[in-house]
Fold this sequence. Notes:
Elements: E1 11-12, E2 20-24, H1 25-41, E3 45-46, H2 56-62, E4 69-72, H3 75-83, E5 88-94, H4 100-108, E6 112-117, H5 120-133, E7 138-143, H6 157-166, E8 170-175, H7 186-209, E9 216-219, H8 222-225, E10 236-237, H9 247-252, E11 262-270, E12 278-281, H10 285-288, E13 306-309, E14 315-324, E15 329-332, E16 347-352, H11 355-359, E17 364-368, E18 373-374, E19 376-379
Parallel strand pairs: 2-17, 3-10, 4-5, 5-6, 6-7, 7-8, 8-9, 9-10
Antiparallel strand pairs: 1-18, 2-11, 11-12, 11-16, 12-15, 13-14, 13-16, 14-15, 17-19
Helix pairs in contact: 5-6
Amino acid sequence: MSSVFPARPVSALDRLATPCLVLERGRLARNLARMAATLAIRRVGFRPHLKTAKSADIARLAAPPPEGALTVSTLREADYFAHHGWNDLFYAVGLGPGKLGQVGALLRRGVRLLTLVDHVESAQALHDFARREELPFRALIEIDCGDRRGGVPPQSDELLAIARALGAGFAGVATHGGQSYAARDRAGFAAAAQAEADALRLAAARLQAAGFPSQILSLGSSPTALADVDLTGITEVRAGVYMFWDCYQAGIGACELGDLALSVLAEVIGRPAARPHEFLIDAGAFALSKDRSTAALGDGRDVGYGLVCDLDGEVLPGLRVEKVWQEHGLVVSPIPLPAERFRPGDRVRILPNHACPTSAAHDRYFVVNGTREVLAEWTRVNGW
C-alpha cells in the first residue's frame, strides 16, 4: 500500500488481527533524523542498511531514490529495492558462487550492485563469471576489524591476493564492527568504531601501495555509526537497526527505551486463575523470535522475549514475556496482577528483544503516530 497517509484512519489497534507489527512513525522519523544529522555533521556518506526494515516506504524516508544508496542483506532485497527505484545497492554479505546467477540478473538490469568477498576463490569466481557474461561488476573486500564473523585481517597476504583476483572489478574495502554489540557504554562503542576505521585505512593503504586504489571505504553498525571518532578517509557509513532500535540496543546503552519504534501487537488468550502472576498471549516464537540477546546483559536488563506495553505503547513495569512456544507467549509479573486486567481479548504491545528477527516473521507494518489509530500499512520483503 502507499506510504501516503489516508485522510481517515484505516482501523484501530483493537481491531487488527494479531499478532502483527506496529510501527511508531514519529519515533522512526526521529531515529532517522538523528543518524542523518550526525553523519552530515561529520561529512561522511551514508548508506542505510535495510536488513531490519526491508520496506520501500521506510527506505524512502531514509534515503529517497534515485540518488539514495542502500545496503541490503539478501539478493531478494536487492531485487525488491531495484524494482522500487533504487539503483545503487550494496549486498553486504560475503558472496558465494551459488548466487552469481542472481547477481548477473541484477547487473543486466543496469543495477549498480556492489558485492562483498573475503576469499580468493569467491573473487575469482565473480571475476570469471562477469567476464564470461560480459558484465561490469564492482566488489569490495571484507575486512575483519575484530568481529571475527567474516573478512580478512587488514595486514594479511590474502588481502592482496583477493584484489588481484578481482582485477578491474575491485572497488574498495568494507568492514562491520559487530564487536560493538559486546560494548556496554559510549566508550566501548567509540573503541569499536575506531577499530573499524583503523582497519579500513590500513587495508586501503596496503592495497594502494600494491597498485589497487580504493574508491570506497565502507564501515558501520548502529552503535558505532553514532560514535564520535576520526573518520578521515572513510567514504560511507552503514547502519540498520537504528531505524527501530530494540531492547538489546537499549540494554547496551545505544538508545533509550523511548526510542524504540517497533512493537508486536498481541491479544491475551489465557489467564490461569491459579497463577495470578501470569497470562498467555497469541504471540510466540514465530511472532517474537527466540532471540534472547538481553540474557547476557545481567543487572536486571534481561527482558526475556520482550517488554510488555499497553496499547498506547507505555511500558508496564515488571511485565515481560518469560517463555515462548510456537504461537504462545507467557507474560510474567513480579507481583500478582489485578483480576480485572489482562483478561482474554485484552491487548498489549511487546517491545522486541531483537528487532531484526522479530520483524522477519511479518509481512507488513501497521503505522501509528502516538495514538491507537492505524494511519497506513507498509509492506516489507522477506526471504532470500
